Amino acid sequence: MANGKKLADKGKKITPEAAKEIANTKDISSVVVELPQPLRTHPNLRLYLSASSPHPIDSYGCTVCHRGSGESVGFVTSDHSPEAFHREIMEEAVSEVEKFEKSELATEKTREEWHEKYHWHKQHHWDYPMLPVSATEASCLQCHRDSLELIREAAPTLYKGWKLIEDRGCYACHKIQGWRETRKPGPALTSIGAKLTPEFVSAWVENPKAFRPTTRMPQIFHLENSRASRRRSRPRSRKCAP
């Protein structure tokens, strides 16, 4: 163990045999094994997987956090989701718009490579595809809906998004799981089609403050990080009257 831990601390690669020896020890949470996937050590073992962590693998497994088909042992049938792994494409982006567009290009390149190498395709009859690495935090909400402060550092993106819903009051009009029993200060959108015209809804969503200056609803369209093609094709509405 001492030799294995020493190698890990120095950032040197460890053989599969050494990794197996390390995995059989009690102090696995302090070891980082640099091996190619699928042999690489899971990150943050003090929090995940090890016997002393709050989420021991024997009790939690994998799909509770990562989703996918837990009974499958194949790359395709386990239902992986492609992601923007090609960071060299992402590094070319400067503005928020470019970052979004480059992310889509990088994801598409990953999808093409998977199709060529693994004959990858979406599993149409499986409802829970494996979450991309960037979205894994979303699974924390299954158990920590009422204890988000506890996972604030471990799931910063999830925490920030949840606080935005709370601060902006999105649940006031939109049906969001976890907020359905909360008092609604705004109108329900269930029968909005019977009350408002399509033109008004378009203008309202495009620029909420043009209709109600005091609203906390954020503007989504015509911003720097909006999809460029949508910004060019979507006409700006001037009037906001029902």
Structural class: mainly alpha
- Calculate the terminal CA-CA distance, rounded to whole Å: 71 Å
Low-confidence spans: 1-11, 228-235
Could you spell the SSE succession in H and E letters? HHEEHHHHHHHHHH
Overall pLDDT metric: 78
Please describe the biggest sheet, giving its number of strands, its sense, and whether it closes into a barrel: 2 strands, parallel
Strand content: under 5%
What is the helical fraction, as a range of percent?
25-40%
Shape annotation: globular
Total helices: the number is: 12
Strands ordered across the widest β-sheet: 1-2
Number of beta-strand segments? 2
What's the Cα radius of gyration? 23 Å
In short:
The protein has helices spanning 2-9, 16-23, 57-60, 63-66, 87-90, 96-118, 141-144, 156-168, 192-195, 198-206, 208-211, 228-233; strands at residues 48-49, 55-56.
Describe the structure in your own words:
- With 242 residues, the chain is mainly α.
- Among the domains are: 2-61, no CATH class; 173-242, no CATH class.
- The chain is 38% helix and 2% strand.
- It is built from twelve helices and two strands.
- It has helices at 2-9, 16-23, 57-60, 63-66, 87-90, 96-118, 141-144, 156-168, 192-195, 198-206, 208-211, 228-233, and strands at 48-49, 55-56.
- Strands 1-2 form a two-stranded parallel sheet.
- Residues 1-11 and 228-235 have low confidence and may be disordered.
